[in-house]
From TrEMBL:
Organism this protein belongs to: Thermomonospora echinospora
InterPro entries for the chain: HotDog_dom_sf, THEM4/THEM5_acyl-CoA_thioest, Thioestr_dom
PANTHER family: ACYL-COENZYME A THIOESTERASE THEM4
Protein name (record): Acyl-coenzyme A thioesterase THEM4
CDD domains (alphabetical): PaaI_thioesterase
GO MF annotations in UniProt: hydrolase activity
């Protein structure tokens, strides 16, 4: 329940704008079993250099995936001093990166390879350095190569207050997207 004293963005029921709202005839997302298996050892598939989830990337977010339920993905990370923007607080771009990672994890569950096409963020509360940030994302519909995905970052526990909300479109790409010469 929202009240007039809450920030304007929090009073909206969703982070999604018209651009990130799936069309009414979008398909219901279907999770791909082989993608679920690959996610159990995603480092084997993607390597371990990811800024979002690489476990040994020194200044990375080191996001830990904690599970999924259908296309809903769960993860968490701890905000480190090197993620700071304003004194003592996480940088907004760092939080957008964390949302990109969890939204991309939900897209991964659909099978194939997806890249971020559009990412919208609502920042609802500051996130102190040292916080454990609980990330969730789910697919709200699939339209051709486009997967519409929304998510939240919460503080204080998986059911804690929302600090960041995001809505996105991920676009399905062929493997050559990652292997073609730059
Ligand atoms: C478990 C592991 C989890 C891993 C998580 C990792 C998370 C991190 C994910 C990332 O950060 S990926 C890196 C950031 N993203 C990029 O680098 C993407 C750069 N952009 C591109 O490579 C191309 O623009 C793109 C592949 C997205 C689209 O080019 P294409 O030529 O393949 O597609 P096209 O332009 O024909 O568009 C296909 C459809 O997507 C739509 N589309 C494309 N770009 C869009 C966009 N930006 N916003 C909204 N819709 C978009 C487009 O309108 C169209 O819709 P329709 O089929 O309905 O006509």
């Amino acid at each position: 329940m929202t009240s007039p004293s809450e920030p304007r963005a929090a009073r909206r029921s969703s982070a999604a704008s018209p651009l990130t709202t799936p069309p009414s005839d979008a398909a219901v997302p279907v999770v791909d079993a082989s993608a679920v298996r690959d996610m159990e050892d995603v480092g084997e598939v993607l390597g371990n250099a990811c800024f979002g989830c690489g476990p040994d990337v020194p200044h990375g977010l080191r996001i830990r995936r904690t599970g999924h339920d259908g296309s809903t993905a769960y993860a968490e990370f701890t905000v480190q001093p090197e993620h700071q923007g304003a004194p003592g607080l996480a940088h907004g771009g760092i939080l957008a990166s964390a949302m990109d990672e969890i939204l991309g994890t939900s897209a991964w569950l659909l099978g194939g390879r997806y890249v971020t096409g559009r990412l919208e963020t609502d920042y609802l509360a500051p996130v102190p350095v040292g916080s454990v940030v609980h990330l969730t994302a789910r697919c709200t519909g699939v339209d051709g190569r486009k997967a519409y995905i929304e998510g939240e970052a919460r503080l204080g526990g998986p059911d804690g207050p929302i600090a960041v909300r995001a809505a996105s479109i991920f676009i399905k790409v062929p493997l050559e997207h990652f292997t073609k010469e730059r």
